[in-house]
Amino acid sequence: MGNHLKLKAYGKINLALDVLRKREDGYHEVRMIMQTVGIYDQVDLLRKREPGITVETNLTYLPVNENNLAYRAAQLLMEEFSVKQGLHIQLRKFLPVAAGMAGGSSDAAAVMFGVNKMFQLGLSTEALMERGVKIGADVPYCIMRGTALSEGIGEKLTPLPPMPQCHVVIAKPGISVSTRYVYENLHANELKPEQHPDIDGMTAAIQAQDLPQVADKLGNVLELVTAERYPVIQEIKEVMKMGGALNALMSGSGPTVFGLFTDPDAAQRVYEELRYGTRSRLAKQVYRTNFYNTRQEES
Length: 299
Ligand code: ATP
What we know:
Elements (H helix, E strand, L loop, with lengths): L3 E19 L5 E21 L3 E6 L11 H12 L5 E7 L10 H16 L6 H8 L6 H6 L2 E6 L3 E4 L7 E6 L6 H6 L14 H9 L3 H7 L1 E2 L2 H7 L2 H11 L4 E4 L6 E5 L2 H12 L9 E5 L10
Parallel strand pairs: 1-8, 3-4
Antiparallel strand pairs: 1-2, 2-4, 2-5, 5-6, 7-10, 7-11, 9-10
Helix pairs in contact: 1-2, 2-3, 6-7
């Protein structure tokens, strides 16, 4: 049994995000097309002889107790299986926090995968996903990864064929957006039909491996709240589209924006412009990446 596991917790973007309605219990029913991208947090698990869970992270403002999703993920499994030994979790965060890229959920997913392996709990991927939803709605998807349709509150997952590869530029403005604020201000039950993104059209475009059609169908109903409040989101989208992106969209509840490019040089130019150039005031973190479609593994 290994005493040290090195894992990668990949982030996601939403190629499409729709909110169908607010349920009576306060949860929102969603339909989302999820896609893993090649940016990740490094998650190291170290077995300890003494019991208990400890967390260490390079971002001093993140909690290191049960308010950290990585801690909670370990606790959930270790309590259920009465694991006597302890665990130290080292989180090196590269994914932007509170950004719509499911960073915390992905850390939790990696920890669940790793704890299952390290302590030989014998849980299947499906069994991990069932438990993951107790930590957060995006955790089952982060365990599964790849291209997927996500429904319900995010726990009903249908794998889709991997997205045709393209170049992705991701930019996060220097603002924080609370997911709760965005959902509360959406007034989901009053949306007009034309305000809903075409999730079935996006699914069909992915099945047909038709990248221009995918780009055409990008849509996120939460832009109605976040982009309305923060004009910088629209500004970044414009920079990406003017620079040659097939299209650009806000991910999750924002404020992260991504653009899809077929031309690598155009992607590189937009990346440099937002990172170092004349438009660098718009974004605090900028990345150039691809879609990532490999299953969870030790690496
Ligand atoms: P989503 O795409 O699911 O909306 P997000 O990118 O908006 O996710 P996260 O980065 O996962 O949000 O974090 C949101 C909040 O969760 C932060 O304010 C942070 O304090 C808390 N949090 C708890 N654990 C973690 C973690 N391991 N990494 C990042 N944030 C965490």
